[in-house]
Write a structure and sequence with these properties.
This protein is mostly helical. It has one domain (36-209). The chain is built from eight helices and seven strands; from the N terminus they run H-H-H-E-E-H-E-E-H-E-E-H-E-H-H. It has a three-stranded mixed sheet with strand order 6-5-7, with helices on one face. A two-stranded antiparallel ribbon has the order 1-2. The chain has a two-stranded antiparallel sheet with strand order 3-4. A hairpin with a 2-residue loop joins strand 5 and strand 6 (151-153). The radius of gyration is 17 Å and the shape is globular. The two termini are 26 Å apart.
Amino acid sequence: MDDAARQLQEGDQRLVAIVDAAGAAAARLAGDRLACRPGCSCCCVGPFPITQLDAARLRLGLEELRSRDPRRARRVRERARTAYAVMASDFPGNAGSGVLDEDETARDLFFERHERLPCPALDPDTGCCDLYEARPLSCRTFGPPVRLDGEPLPPCILCFAGAPAQTVEACRITLDLASAESPLVRLAETRTGRSGETLVAMVLSEPPGGSRLSRR
């Protein structure tokens, strides 16, 4: 592993630790109002943008899974390839690199068209994420009420059912990630040569050891 790769991995580990600690604090505040638990996967449906830092983490997570459980890793990749085949024709960006365009209208229409498509990391038999430890930051901050970089995010629709707004706000945590995340995203983009957001399926459908572009 070269110095840049080590810097990226160590920086990402610190970032994930911060996010996971905040998630644990949010869970303690929410208590039994938080519905999130293994097997609950309603938020694991529909594509959403992820950074190249998330993509690097997912690639590493899939590689580690392949070393431990090749059959399980193969199923993840097969689901990703199926999802890629469904989305490639109307992907709002470069389907080869997996990089999304910045056209928000095109993105929103695309996400709406594919809103029922399960995440390829989701095991349909268990309802659990096969790459849970490598999941994107969006997944890690979804569920409890969070104020992320100044923006209040709503909790999962299954959480805080029937609770008044003041109860939700009393359990909201504040998480400021931009200053720590942005340099790592730039480093990940420099290392991959891909600048911009992508999708989980685009990352996990790549051939082992290289992108779709490098195999053309």
